[in-house]
Write a structure and sequence with these properties.
Number of strands: 0
Largest sheet: none
Strand content: under 5%
Number of helices: 4
Distance between the termini: 163 Å
Helix content: over 70%
Radius of gyration: 61 Å
């Protein structure tokens, strides 16, 4: 420590001012130190400050995570809408192709059926001409009369045809026993 000059010594005035400055400076430092010690000793205050900082940090993190979740949800929703639209377009395309194929197959089937029908009619007409050419005139006229009668009275013709069928079966069975 330095010695303090007496008031009547030379340079004492200058050192008094200096000394006052040093005292003032020491008081300020001591006040800062006391405040720092008091702050360290104030556990409740420090805990409250820490709680406020943690609360602010949690609030910021919550807002950040919420914003990220909203962005991800928006992206997922947009992606789902795009995928749904793509699936709908693909389904429409597949449906259109199936309809075209069905129409094509139906048209081909109709054409084939028409050809087969035409061929059958042509062959039936040819067979009718052959039968007509080879059948004697008296038999043809009786057949035409029988057909006309059958068209006018279908029940008696059906009964007669059934009787002839039964007679044919009986004759066939009898002829089989004789052999």
């Amino acid at each position: 420590m330095t010695s303090i000059p007496e008031a009547n010594e030379p340079g004492a005035a200058a050192s008094k001012d200096e000394l006052r400055e040093q005292i003032e400076h020491a008081r300020e430092e001591l006040g800062d130190t006391v405040e720092a010690l008091a702050a360290k000793a104030d556990i409740k205050g420090r805990a409250q400050d820490k709680a406020v900082r943690v609360k602010d940090q949690v609030g910021r993190k919550t807002a950040e995570v919420t914003a990220e979740a909203k962005v991800k949800a928006a992206h997922a929703t947009a992606d789902a809408k795009v995928k749904a639209a793509e699936a709908k377009d693909k389904a429409a395309h597949v449906t259109a192709e199936a309809r075209e194929k069905a129409a094509h197959v139906t048209a081909e089937a109709r054409n084939k059926a028409a050809l087969v029908t035409a061929e059958a009619r042509e062959k039936a007409a040819q067979a009718a001409h052959i039968v007509q050419d080879r059948t004697p005139e008296p038999v043809r006229s009786v057949a035409v009369q029988a057909a006309d009668t059958g068209r006018r009275n279908p029940v008696p013709v059906a009964v007669a045809a059934a009787a002839l069928a039964v007679l044919a079966v009986v004759l066939i069975k009898r002829s089989g026993k004789r052999h």
